[in-house]
Structure formats: C-alpha cells, structure tokens
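just leaving the lab so this will be short. what follows is a protein written twice so to speak, once as letters and once as structure tokens for the fold. can you read through it and tell me how you think this chain folds. anything you notice is useful, everything is just below:
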Amino acid sequence: MTVKITEDMKFSSAFDYIDNGVEHGVLSPFETKEVLLKKGQQIAAGFKPLTVDIKMLKDVPVELRDGVTIYTDIYLPTSGEKVPTLIAWSPYGKSAGTAPRYKNLFNMLGMGNQWNSGLTKFEAPDPTYWVEHGYAVCNPDMRGIAHSEGDTTMLGSQEAEDGYDLIEWLAEQSWSNGKTALTGTSYLAFSQWFIASEMPPHLTCINPTEGLSDGYRDLAFIGGIPDENFIDRLAVNHVSATGAQREDLVKEMQAYPLADAALWQDKVADASKITLPAFVIASYSNTLHTFGTFRSWRTLGSQEKWLRIHDRQEWPYYYDEANTEELRRFFDYYLLGQDNGWLDTPKVRYTTIDFEGNNQTDIPATAFPPTESQNVRYYLNGPARTLQTELPETDLPVKYVAGGLPGRTSFQVTFDQDTQFVGYPKAKLFMEVEDYDDMDIFVWVQKLDQRGNVLSEFVVPNHGAALQDFTQEGASALRYKGAWGRLRASMRHLDAQLATDEIPAYTFDRVEKLAKGEIVSLDIVLSPIGLAYQAGETLRVVVSSKDELGSVMPGTPGCTPDNQGVHVLHTGGEFASYLQLPLMTK
C-alpha cells in the first residue's frame, strides 16, 4: 500500500468470495473479455430488459500507483463515439446487481427490481439508462474486493488515491472524452468526498447523494458513543477471492477510542478542498447520512454547487425516473457540454415535513437555512413540563432513572398558529448524574397531532406489517420520526475552531468524567430539520437515557448506552436548559 496511515490500521481476514454466479450476481464469474449485451436482453428474471445495445468490458485490469491491480466492469455505447464516464466507487461488488441479498433488500423496501436492468451496482447508476444517453459507467471492485489485489481499507486517503488513479486511467482510454464524474448513494457518496478532495485533473463534477463524511463522528462514535453493530454489518461486504485482509473498524474503535488518533483524522473528508461543480442530495431523515451530508455541503469549496433536500429514503429518490432525468441535466451540462439551462436551477431546494401527507418539496432558496429562518430558544419548564420562550427564573430539576421506566423525560409546546422550523436545531442541557460518573443522552424532537398522537412517516414504499415491526423502535433510515441527536457527557468538550452557537462540534479528544454533584453543560447537535406544525399541533422534545430511534437498518441492534444511576436535568435560572429551533419568520 502507498499510504502511510495503513501502518496504523487493524486488519482481519476478508470474508470468502463465493464465485458461483449466484451469490455475487449472474455476471460475477471472473473473465477478462468484451461482451455485447443486446437491447431487449433480460440479465435475470424480474429485472428490466435492456433498453439499448451495450458493450461490456468485463474484469478490466487497472494498475494503481503502487503496482496493485484492481478490476472493473465498464459499460459503453456501441456507437464508437468518445463518451464521459460515471464512476461508482464502493466495496459492494461490481457485478452484484442480481445478487439475492440486493434483490431481497429492494423487495423488502417495496421497490421490487423492475426499476433496474440487473447491471446496476448496489447504490450506483443503472448502466442501461446512462449508456442509452451517451455515457459510460465504470463499476470497480476496489482494492482487496473479489479478485482485486491488495488489502481492503475503508474510507480515507488510501481510497482517495486509488480513486484518483482510476479516474486518470479512465480519461486515457480510447473511448473516453476525458471527462468523468462520481455518483451514487451512501458509501458511493461518502467516498466522493474523499476522492474529490484529491482533485484528480480529469474529475469534472460530483453527485454525492446522502453520505457521511467523518468516519468517527458519523459512523463509529456518533455523539462520542461507540456503535460496533452497524460496522459489523458493513464488514460482511469485504469479500475476497485472493485471501486479502480487510480493515477492521471494530478493532480500530477499541484501539483508538478518541478522534485525535491519526487513523480517525485520516477518515475526515475535507470538502473545502473540492472546487468542482457539485450536485448534493440530502434528506432530514437518514440517521446515518444526514449530519455528514449537510456538514460537507456547508464546507464545500465549490462555487458551482447545488443542494436538494428531499423527503424520501435515498434509494427510492436516486432511482426515481424524474430525479434521474434531472441528474442527467446536471451531467449533460458539465460532461457533454449541452446548453440546457442547468445553471438556472435554484442553488438550494428544501422540503418541509408535516407527517400528514402534505409535505412541501423543492422550495427554492439561496441558502440553507433559508434567510427567513431565525433561531429561537424554547426553555424547558420543569414544573409544567412545557417549552416556553421566557427564561424560567427558578431551577426545578427533573429526574429519571437511567435505563429504567420510562428512562426519559419530555417537554411540550402547542402552537396557536401555523409554525415552521427549517435549519439547524440544537439542545443545550444542564445535567448531572447521581451514583455514576457518565451519561449517554439521546434527544428527539417529535410532532404530535391535535389528539396527542406521535407522528412519523415511512420514506420507503413498503408500509406493511413487517416494516412496521422493524421501524417501530429501529430501522431509523426507513421511517422518519423527527430531529435527533446524542452525546456522551464525558465527550462534551466543544471544538473552539468548528463549534458555533448554531451548530455544536466536538473535539472527541478527551474523556472528562463527571464528579459527584457536578452540573455539566451539554451542547447537543441535532439533525437538520424542515418541520411544519399547524395551529393546535404540538412539538415534544424527549430527553432519554435510551437509543429511542434504534439502529439504521432492520436486523441490526442500535448502540448500547453506558448509563447507570439517576439523571438530573436542570431547567431554570443559571441552569436554564433549552431547545434552540430555526423558526421561519415569513
């Protein structure tokens, strides 16, 4: 490997790659060759027939700067014209579009598989659509995956350099017009922040659709609270036919628990280095991706950048026909040089959620938060358990048993007129703990209807009983329940360079346990919101010792809090806790 930080990484054996033409898709058996896929051909049962003839360059070797060879599949038009290339960088298997695990996933979500050709790498663009419109699609198996050589790393400078090398190799190919773009969702989005920050000369533009940007803060230790379970789930994608090693983030979490370790510093993407045109897609609802996407948007160095905030889960959004057409306008402008009016697209389009079927989408703005948004403090009233804009003069602490029943406390305000909040909320809580030296605090901003029912909404097509079960207390990326945040009290130290009154940020470089009777100030960053309340409806903020939202996806447990004793929340005087919300004034 070429990057020094790999010396600090912890590795385990990759999982075995089963090359049977089923486990990793019908096109997975390894063979370097050229294949002509014909219009009307069905790659596998249940998938959409190809809409165009496609030249497939299968298992093409690409040598990286340190001599390691990776393999990629490339899909091309048969016209012979020079074309730009869309790149889908991830560990998810270049030929796995028909793999049972992905077919089952999309069936569970209610999407089925008819929307794609079966050539589609997980979370990546569908080659049949893009080839039909004059593009090449490149699906690489990154270092250490399947038959690609080397050992697999996860996020950071090694992937960034490897992606750089692939981009420059693609630009030199005889069929290439010299222009490339990165696109895709989730892992294919957060890899873009790292690769694009290297500014490869032939990377023309990027399209990050919901992806984290900091391996420590957005994945391994959200709020300073370790969560190994979802990382274990991601690791099963690191499969090798060559006996490769895989970077083991769980081992690294145990070896490097603080964010100032060089390994974690290498997993922080610096979007300020990116000056390329960028079409960034975000949502309020994805509990894995929302923080990182908005953070990267704020720091992005591009002058030509667009933000669209939608109201669905990323996969239904990305593969929606109208959204794909809009993305093609972006790519057509920058990669094909078409004068199609893309520059007239509003720089920001946001959504407001009402949980009652009346979401407002694609509201144009010049910035996020919109200029009409103004931060307002709603103070916690201990005696009444309400929220109020007046500062309470007297502190009446509220207590709950950590991990017990109910193990939480909450405060409410009912609005006497229609009210909207759009922007960045936060909670400032003054708390102490009895009979322990730490607290894991979970905050949740809810909407209640006029009858007091807690509202939420599915962001995937399936609303059936099984998904009701999974999402009632988990699978948070599939059902939106409101803004949220969490913080371990001993990790509360604010980053003086990055934290603002609006958006707290933490160093996570020290552990400051609580002394007996010590009241600490906790500035808890909450996920961006666009919430709409009608007159008579109620906002409730929950402060809990439990991970009320649960894990990101079905079948995976959430984090395990480190909570004991009794939590004490102060609510007035010099310890006036409050919820700060971005109120729309017009």
User: Anything to note?
Assistant: The chain has twelve helices and 31 strands. The chain has two domains: 4-345, 373-584.
